[in-house]
Fold these 3 entries.
Entry 1:
Amino acid sequence: MKYRKLGSTGLNVSVIGIGTWQFGGEWGKDFTQNEVDAMLDKSGELGINLIDTAECYGDHLSERFIGNYLARRKREDWIVATKFGHGFKGHLQREQLWSADQVLKQLDDSLKSLQTEYVDLYQFHSGTDAEFENDKLWSMLDRQVQAGKIRHLGISISASGTGVHQTASAQAVGAEAIQVVYNRLERGPEEEVFPLCAKHNLGVLARVPLASGYLSGKYKPDAAFPTGDVRANHNADTRQKQLLEVAKIAESEVPEGIPMAQWALGWCLQHPAVTSVIPGCKDVAQVIANAAAADLGMVKDGQSL
C-alpha cells in the first residue's frame, strides 16, 4: 500500500480507502457483522487505513457495523471519516438536519455508533451553499474540535453542484479536506475544484471512483439493476450512454492485462490533487482487487506511486 498526507491535516492516509455506503443496505445487499469484519480485516491486512462512512448510510447502520468492529480492534490503526447533515428516512430518503443543535446530536450519535471518542474527519455532507453559510454551525464544530471529539473538519461536495464556493471557503470554516465525485466519466472537479484544493493545501478524497460500478467493466450498455439497488434509480438513458462510453474506454485506454476497475482507481490517483480514492466493496475479493490498484505504477508529482 502507498500513503499520502491528507492536505494540512497531517493524517497519513492509504491511497486506497474503503467506502461504506453499501453497508447501509441501499446497494442491493444487506450485510452481516461477520461480512463487514472480514472486509475490514482484509483491508487492514493490505494496508488500507481509511474508512469513509456517514450518519445516513442507514440510520447510523454503517457506523454501527464499523463501531462494532473497531471496539474489537486497535482504534488507532484506523482513520475514520464520517459526515453530517442528514437523517435516514428510508431507501434513498433523507431528512435535512443542518442546525447547530441538530448536527451536535448527529455527532454524538455517530460517536456512540462508532464506539469511539473522536472522529478523525467530520464532513459537511452534500449541503447547499445556503446551508453551508451558517456561522453558528461552524462555531459549534470548532468547539467540538477543541474538545477533542473531532480531529479535522472536511467538506463532502454535493454531486449536484460545482462545489467551487464551498471549496474556496473551506479554510475560512476550518475545513482541511474536500470529498468530491471524481472518475473517468465525471471530470468536472479538474476545472476549478482541484486547482483550489492545490492552492489551499486541501486533501482530496475521490468518491464514486468506479462511477457507481459502471467502470468495473462488469456491465453492458443494456444492464438492468434490481429494486433496492441505488443504480435502479439512475436515468436509463444516461446509464446507457455512460456504459457505451465505458465500452469505448475499455477498448482504447485500459492496458491489456489490467482489470478495468483497478485501472479506473489508478486513473483517479494519477491526478496530483487526489490524495485517496474511496471505492465501495461488497466482499473480500473486491477489497483485494481495489487494494491492488495502489501498485499500478501511476505517477504523482513525477514520482511513481
Entry 2:
Amino acid sequence: MIKRSLKAIKVMINGEGLEEKFESVMVEGVSIDSRTVKKGNLFIPIIRIKDGHNYVLEAMKNGAIAALWEKNRSNPPKDIPLIFVDNTLLALQSLASSYRNQLSIKVIGITGSNGKTTTKDMVNSIVSTSFNVHKTRGNLNSQIGLPLTILEVSEDDEIVVLEMGMSERGQIEQLSKIAQPDIAIITMIGLSHIATLGSREEIAKAKLEILAGLKENGLFIFYGDEPLLNEVKYTYNTSRIRFITFGVSTDNDIYASSVFEESGEYKFFINNRNASLYTVPLMGKHNVQNALAAISVGKELGIKEENIVSGLKNLTITEMRMQKLISKSGYTIINDAWNASPNSVTAAIEAFQELRHYNKKIIVLGDMLELGAKEEDYHKEIGQIIDPDRIDYLITYGPLSKHTANEAKKTFGKERVKHFTDKKEIVELIKDITMENDIILVKGSRGMALEEIVNLLL
C-alpha cells in the first residue's frame, strides 16, 4: 500500500493548508470508510449519499492519522492533520495516478460488457506463476474502486491487474488515464448499459475509451470477431499501439482449436498447434474466449508455457461468477448472481444445458436490468432459448422475468415453470423438489440480490 509523508501527498494531489508540524507524518494506506479505517490510514471523505466530511473525527478516533477536506466545507476540525483540496474524489484519483507513476509496475487493464472479472482472475492466475501481482478485489472497478485498488499496490509488486467498469461515457477514459495500462483488454461488446448508451455502437465506443491511457507501444488485446472492435485497426495510430485479436474465427491472432468438454472443464489447443493442451476449470464454453485473452497476456509477458498452462488450470474465481457450491443436502448450486445481461444469461444457460451426470437441472432467473425500451423482448427471448428436454424446472423472480416464464411455458408447459415475487417461496419449492446430485443455476442482475436465495439453499 502507499506509504508516503503528508508533505509528499500534498504535492501529489496539489493540496493546500497542511500545517508544517504535520508534514513529516507518515501515511500507510487510504480509506473512505470510517468504520473500516486502519491505523495510519489517510481518510478521504467522499461525498456520495452521505457526506464523508461528517465522519472525519470518527475516522481519526478509529485509527486514521490524517484526512483530506474540501475547501468549500465549513468548520474543518482543529488540531488534526488536514490537507485541503477542491474535490476529494478528484484528489483520490490524482493520488492514485501520481502513485502509479512512481511505481515500477506493468498495468493490465480489463473491460468489456461481460467476462471482465473472470478474465481478470485468469490473468492473475497465469501471471502470478512468475510475478508478484496485485489485482482488483471483488468488484472495485469504479471511479472510486480503481484508485483505491492502485493505492493498495505494494512497492514490491510487479504487475497490477485492474478491472474497469462503467455506467456512462467518459468513465473508462478517466480510469484508463489514471491507470495508464501497458496492456488493455476488451473481452466483448454486449448489451449491458444499452438503456443509458442507446446502442451497441455507443457501448463499443465507451469500452474503447480504455485506449485513452494506454502507454506508448502498449498492447491492445480484443475480441476480433466483433466488427465494432475491429474498426480500431483503421482508426488508431498503429505505430503507437500494438494489437492481438482473439476469438473463434481462424482470422484471429489466437483462436482455440479441438475444444472439448471433460468432467465440467473445457480443454483446447490454440491455432491448430498441439504443443500445449490448455484447461479451463469452469462451466461454459464461452470461458475459452476469456482464457485466450489471458493466455495472450502470459505470452506478452514472456511467461513460460508450462506456467501459463498450470496457472490457467489452477484458476480460482471471484465469488458469484459461475461459482460452484455444494449444499448440505448434497445438491450443487452454480452461483452466478453477480450480474446479468442477455449475452451473459444466454451463455450461462447454454453452458448449464450442456452439463451431464446430474439428475435434475433447475434454472433460477432474476430480472435483467438497464436494458431500455426492449427489456420485455429480451426477457421473452431468454424464455425461448431454454430447452425443455435438457432443463427440468425454470423458476423466475421479478416483474420482467415474468415475461421469460410466460414464454417458456409455451414449450415447457405450466407445471415445470414457476414465477415468484417472494424469494423464500422459491427456496421452499427448490428444497421440496431437489435431491442429492441435482444442480441449480442462479442468475440475475445485481439489483435482484439473488445471492439471498443461494445462501438460504446452502
Entry 3:
Amino acid sequence: MPEAVLTPVLDWLDILGVAIFALSGALLAAKERQTFVTMGFFALVTGVGGGTVRDLLIDAPVFWISDPWIAAVCLGTALIAWITPTRWWEGKLLDYADGVGLTAYAVLGSAKALSYGVQPVPAILMGIITGTVGGIIRDVVAGRPSIIMRPELYVTAAALSASLCVAGSVTELPNWAVWSVATLAGLALRSAAIRYNLALPSYREGRKGLEIDEG
C-alpha cells in the first residue's frame, strides 16, 4: 500500500478544490435555469471529475467513493448556488476562486500520484488532469466551448503548480512548504492571466508555407 498522502494541508486543498469546482458547475446550471437536481449533478461531476480520472489512471481507490464528505460538499455547494442570486457570483471573483481550486487540485494530484510510485513526468500530468478535467467535463456536458480552448493561461498555471510540487519532492523542505509554494505560484500566474489577459502565442502558418500551399 502506498504511503498516505493526505495530511491536514492536502485535506484542506482537497476540500477547497472540490468546493470551488462544484460551485462553478452549479452556477453554470443556474445560469441555464436548470433544476436543483441538474445543479447537483453539475456540481458533482465538476468537483470530482479530475480526481476520479486521476485515481483510475494511478490505480488508486476513487477518492470520493470512500470519503462521504466529498459528495456532501458538492451537493451543499449546489444548495448554496440554488438559494443565492447568480448576480452575487458575476465578475472576476469566481475566476479567481477557480484559480485557487485549479492550482490546489494540481498540487494534490501530483502529490498523490507520487505517493503511489508514479514517476515525475507522469505525476506532473496527473496534477494537470486533476486540476482541469472536471472543468472540461462541465463544459462538454453543457455544450459550450471548453476553457482549455481559450488562449488565456489556464492549463499552464496547473502545470506550473504540478511541476513545482514534483520538483520540490526531491528537496529536504517540509511537504507543507513545497505544497504551499507550488499552489501560490500557480495561483499568481493564473491571477496575472485573468488580470492582464496573458496568453501563450497561438499557432500560425508561416508565410512561406502558405505561399507553397497556394501555389
